[in-house]
Amino acid sequence: MTTAGTRSAAFFDLDKTIIAKSSTLAFSKPFFQGGLLTRRAVLRSAYANFMFSLQGADHDQLEKMRAYLTQMIAGWDVAVVRQCVAETLHTVVDPIVYAEAVELIEQHQAAGRDVVIVSASGSEVVEPIGEMLGVDHVIATTLVEEDGRYTGEVAFYAYGPHKAAAMRALAEERGYDLADCYAYSDSETDVPMLQVVGHPFAVNPDKTLRKEAEERDWPVLTFGHPVTLSSRLALDTTTGKAAAALLLAGGAGAAAALLARRRTRGAS
């Protein structure tokens, strides 16, 4: 537990750490429907592969992703993107979250720690997910906007060492003692993120991160129980959080009763 006079935080990667798949794989269809992507781009899953899901990329691949990103998103209407994300998050995507991750988030919050999502995915995706999970802050890729449209430039790329730098900056701003902080990730590209805290954990690690964790004696966690995010948190803010708390306490029956009462009130 956080001691008196000190602040600490738990930093979580998003894709394959909190969520069992890419947080943006399902957005190509609604972006196509919103007129943002061509059918060819949808079929190639270009958006998911190049815009937000950056794990496993070396430096050369990352630079190619930057170039593709600049070419693809220039001129996109920011409001349309945010609307597509908001609608899809609740009705189409139905993201899958690991029950173990949600329980860890709750445990850290109960111990008095802030919870921060640190993701290479775009802020348009990460912020709504963070809000539904009830986290304190998100660090995510941000794009330059001008006159309501994306210019095609990247203001901040939340990837690799940039994640670690952003974590240090947030720690300085909020007074976190990084030696008392925790971090969780699945990818070798997040070694810098894991190095900056006193309590790093590899979650479902890729081959390279697993080897790194063994060499550094970092604990390795296995998350294997994904549940639908909407079933836990997407009812409304108050009821969603109440349902999540009940489920995390093992009160599945109580959560079912809560939902039944909502249906009864709606029918009356």
Strand percentage:
15-25%
User: What is the helix content?
Assistant: 40-55%
- The number of strands is 9
What structural class results from the helix and strand content?
Answer: alpha/beta
Strand arrangement, major sheet: 5-4-3-1-6-7-8
The residue-averaged pLDDT reads 75
Beginning-to-end CA distance, first to last residue: 45 Å
* Number of helices in the DSSP assignment: 13
Q: Quick one: CATH class of the largest domain? A: Alpha Beta
Report the major sheet: 7 strands, mixed
Order of helices and strands: EHHHHHEHEHEEHEHEHEEHHH
Number of domains: 2
The name of the CATH superfamily of the largest domain reads: HAD superfamily/HAD-like
Alpha-carbon Rg, integer = 19 Å
Shape field:
globular
CATH topology of the largest domain: Rossmann fold
CATH architecture descriptor text of the largest domain: 3-Layer(aba) Sandwich
Low-confidence stretches: 42-56, 234-268
List the topology elements:
Elements: E1 9-12, H1 28-33, H2 39-43, H3 46-52, H4 59-73, H5 78-91, E2 96-98, H6 99-110, E3 114-122, H7 123-133, E4 137-146, E5 149-156, H8 161-174, E6 182-185, H9 191-195, E7 199-203, H10 207-216, E8 220-221, E9 226-228, H11 229-233, H12 237-248, H13 252-267
Parallel strand pairs: 1-3, 1-6, 3-4, 6-7, 7-8
Antiparallel strand pairs: 2-9, 4-5
Helix pairs in contact: 5-7, 12-13
